[in-house]
Amino acid sequence: MNSTSLARDIVRQLIENGVSDFVLSPGSRNAPLSIALHEAELAGFINLYVRIDERGAAFFALGLSKASDNYVAVICTSGTAAANFHPATLEAYHSANKLLVITADRPAHLRRTGASQTTLQVGLLEPVSTIDISSSIRIANSLTSGPVHLNIQFDEPLLSDDGTDWLAGLKPHAKENPAEEPNELFNPKSRGVVVVGHDRAGLDAGALSRYAAALGWPIIAEDPLSFPSSISHAALFLSDSIIRAALKPDEIIVVGRPTLSRSIAALIKECDNVVIIDPRAMTVDTERSASNIFSTIPTGATTLDPRWLKLWRDCAKTAANSLHLDWSEQSVVSAIAANIPEGAALFVGSSRPVRDIEAFAKPRSGIHTFANRGLAGIDGNISCAFGIAEKYERSYAIMGDITFLHDISALVNPSEANLTIFVIDNNGGGIFNTLSQAGVDGFEKIFGTPHNLDLERVIHGFGGQVIRVKSDSDLLHAVIHPTHGLNFVVVEVPDRVVNAERLKVITQSLVNALRIGTNLA
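-> structure tokens emitted (521 positions)
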């Protein structure tokens, strides 16, 4: 099969199996696919996005996949281009996102021969396995869950004058969701807590909320913006060992992977019975251990301890009433989360913002939240937010300045969607000021990494619309009254060292209020 026919066959199969979004990075060896995709777009079968940087292209495709919950293909040429797909592929693997990675390659007989732009692309994106393709194969069975890597061998000639209407009779079909597994039986104890990791193990937030309500147990959510009934500010008050001991459950159900708060991790570690709900435990995280491990939400009823539940509710209420924030990174994140309009999407960047959402944002509903929690990296956060924004009428993103600068090349291909990106500018890696590394010799050089850049000028250099805010009122106006298209809001916050000290003071003040308010002093 010649290269043109092979490319057409693959594209046709993908369209027939419900893939409609394709992200292309230009190159020579992938020319047969590029041309076939252009023809499919002209015929109205697909959405084709072109991104010149492969690393950003893969994260853009990952964002599209997160927002659509469907396979999205990202395509590149051979060589280092293919290697640039690895960070996004790893994130997709650990988050079980539907990313379809397609790398063009030389024919197998040219491998290890010194042929130009030829390396060993089979196995390049491990732990995602490679399907090495030299002729037509059936692709549908590979599109089940999690990322897939197709490595396609294209031989010369790469172009063809074949004018066949290869799209004739093509009928796209939406990919059918696999049948749900039957719920397993689980007999929970009376004193229990549901702890939900940020990505919910891919499970529906509404279904999890209903399950927790049926149990009658409190919910602690790393993403309180998806669980309006979750416990407010648990990550803060559970940092106190006395409060944690008073609230200690007999059983904890962990949904997904809680990856942020050390206090939540301590609560889980101190509990004798831990139950995991996460389908990844069967494939990706096979070494996880617990009293029980379920791949779906189980069924079962329990009797409750009203006095113990009241103590949890009193702690949440006292925490919410006691928390008062001056202008800071925490007040910024809390205000943005509270005032985003219903129906919008929010992408939360890694490092400090995602932690501040967990600890300081008030539980609510009505928005769609996303974050890269598979490996929790700052890689490609702008690109991922761009991809998500394509699927929503209005979107927002929050990220730190280092995270923003790490993916600055994404601004070469700016989003045309209605997206507002809030960049929290504290001139460096503020997360490290709150970790054990703070204050070590050479801290500013090897951890703090001040960039000393005027972010407004950087964004203007890419032609972006940008404003700087320094107060609650200006921030609120930027959230409630965003302009059309892509906008950047540089948020000037207090010094990183000052912020770290404030976090300690805020946490201790909250703990003291809870101890007194709940008679635990």
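The CA atoms of residues 318 and 514 lie 6 Å apart.
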